[in-house]
Design goal:
Elements: H1 2-25, E1 31-38, E2 42-49, E3 55-61, H2 72-80, E4 84-88, E5 100-101, H3 107-126, E6 131-140, H4 142-153, E7 161-164, E8 179-184, H5 189-200, E9 223-228, H6 240-254, H7 266-278, H8 280-283, H9 301-320, H10 332-353, H11 368-393, H12 404-425, H13 434-452, H14 454-457, H15 459-485, H16 488-506, E10 510-511
Helix pairs in contact: 1-7, 2-6, 3-4, 7-11, 9-10, 9-13, 10-12, 11-15, 11-16, 12-16, 13-15, 15-16
Length: about 500
């Protein structure tokens, strides 16, 4: 029965993968995509519509800790509606090899660097073949501030500006021209207020309604705001409401008429990743057995609870007193330290509660060749089957050479945690629910650390939802690989590498 169920899972997963890829690749029909390097090594992508005539260009910018892949739905939607769309990676983000320089909290620091970079990309965009010289801007989150400032400062006219999840303190009653603000209905109230306030700055407008247009496109005074229902800070980029609103606003700004539908990618990206993850269940049955009888700590809650609680409480308190700035990666150095210390404390607590007991008893020699093969296979599957779709359709996941040392440094931190955690939560008679409980404790510990140092570690609050998803997906990989190999360290090594990889390739590189 298990063999039959695995076969059915494999077939369903492959069908789902095929369906998702078909739907994700379909919007590229009729759109020409080319890569370019702009200015000081800025990776850029140009989406050109079918046809030979001249077209306006829209420069599309991603938010903090994002990459140009995140903005593909907007780029494809606009290209299918006759625009030349240009996306790019900001300094320190995605595949840009140079770090973001300057204090990220000061206009004179990182903001100035990003504005200079946008000026280079804007010149490139205006000069593209078939561009009619007119330029519009679209930016998300951090980039909303950058595009607003750029539109206000550049001597060249900006025909229309679309700010998604906007926080931009320099917005005035007159600038930027033809401004639309889009915000997700589930985003923080501060962003909803900022969107409404940007429209209310216009004279005579006190209570602006979402969806209404105030002012005139012909003289650049048009302003409006839209709420994309049911989506949050990332979902707003994939919302049909957001994409359609941006298309319609730019059409009015440029005096164009087009009605090609919005590119709805979100559900298909999710299906592709989930199907690739599900296929791991039958695939992992092919892993070599490392232990004939499953091994692990195998302790119940009576002995396990202090091992779960003590590292969660102690780690943020200890690191609060110590310097953790040793990597050119935003909060990446702190995460490496948190993972590493948490893992060491877990291992010490496990040793203490297991003195003279079965969990401290000697075990047979490890068959290193089979162990290495199994761990490498699990890690490779995760990176290729899950990471490649993420890199292609969601966010940059493939490392450039400058990020390889960061992966190694983070791996040194993640390895102690995942080895100790896998050993604690596996084995005969292990505490029921221990695996999710230890991950929840770790996340609570991270949030406590952020609360102790909000100025430096606020970014940890933003990444917690992503880490929850990673713990769920790779927790399933852990379960299936443990069932096949009988040894928790297989998933321990693999998951440590996966988490180190994900953090090192997605977090911004910074240099203050």
């Amino acid at each position: 029965m298990t063999r039959l169920s695995n076969l059915l899972i494999a077939v369903v997963a492959l069908v789902a993968i095929g369906l998702a890829l078909w739907r994700l690749l379909a919007p590229f029909d009729g759109v020409t995509v080319s890569q370019a390097t702009v200015g000081e090594r800025t990776p850029a992508t140009v989406y050109r519509p079918a046809g030979e005539g001249a077209a306006p260009t829209v420069l599309i910018a991603h938010g903090f800790a994002g990459s140009q892949q995140l903005m593909q739905p907007f780029a494809l939607t606009l290209a299918r509606n006759g625009y030349i769309a240009v996306t790019f990676d900001f300094l320190g983000h995605g595949e840009h090899p140079l770090p973001l320089t300057g204090d990220i909290t000061r206009v004179e620091g990182a903001t100035r660097s990003l504005l200079d970079q946008m000026a280079d990309v804007a010149r490139f965009a205006r000069g593209l073949p078939r561009s009619d010289g007119r330029l519009g801007l679209l930016g998300h989150s951090m980039a909303s501030d950058i595009i607003v400032r750029f539109a206000q400062q550049t001597p060249e006219p900006i025909v229309g500006t679309v700010a998604v999840s906007m926080f931009a303190p320099t917005v005035s009653a007159e600038t930027p021209e033809n401004l639309l603000v889009i915000v997700g209905g589930l985003e923080p109230q501060a962003l909803l207020n900022a969107a409404k306030r940007a429209v209310a700055l216009k004279p005579g407008v006190e209570e602006p309604s979402p969806g209404e247009i105030y002012g005139s496109f012909s003289d650049g005074s048009a302003r409006g705001w839209r709420i994309a229902d049911g989506v949050e800070h990332i979902g707003v980029l994939y919302s049909q409401e957001s994409l359609t609103a941006a298309r319609d606003w730019l059409n009015r700004s440029f005096g164009r008429k087009s009605r090609a539908g919005a590119v709805v990618w979100g559900p298909w990206i999710l299906l592709l990743v989930l199907a690739a993850a599900a296929f791991a269940r039958p695939a992992f049955t092919l892993l070599p057995a490392v232990r004939e009888a499953p091994t692990g700590a195998g302790i119940g809650w009576r002995r396990a609870w202090p091992v779960v609680v003590i590292p969660a409480v102690a780690t943020p308190l200890v690191l609060w007193l110590l310097p953790t700035n040793f990597l050119p990666l935003l909060v990446g150095d702190y995460l490496a330290a948190h993972f590493g210390l948490y893992g060491l404390l877990t291992a010490l607590a496990l040793w203490y509660v297991g003195r003279g007991r079965d969990i401290a008893a000697p075990t047979p020699p490890l068959p290193w060749a089979r162990f290495a093969l199994a761990a490498a296979a699990v890690a490779a599957y995760a990176i290729l089957a899950v990471g490649v779709p993420i890199d292609r359709f969601f966010i940059s996941f493939w490392p450039i050479p400058e990020r390889l040392p960061l992966i190694a440094a983070l791996f040194a931190g993640t390895l102690p945690f995942f080895l100790a955690d896998e050993w604690l939560t596996r084995g005969p008679q292990h505490a029921r629910g221990a695996y999710p409980a230890t991950k929840a404790a770790f996340l609570v510990s991270l949030m406590a650390a952020a609360g102790l140092d909000l100025e430096q570690l606020f970014f940890l609050f933003i990444i917690v939802p992503v880490m929850v998803l990673f713990f769920v997906v790779f927790g399933l990989f852990s379960r299936w690989s443990y069932k096949a190999t009988g040894h928790p360290a297989v998933a321990g090594v693999a998951n440590a590498l996966i988490f180190a990889w994900a953090i090192a390739v997605t977090f911004p590189m910074v240099q203050q």
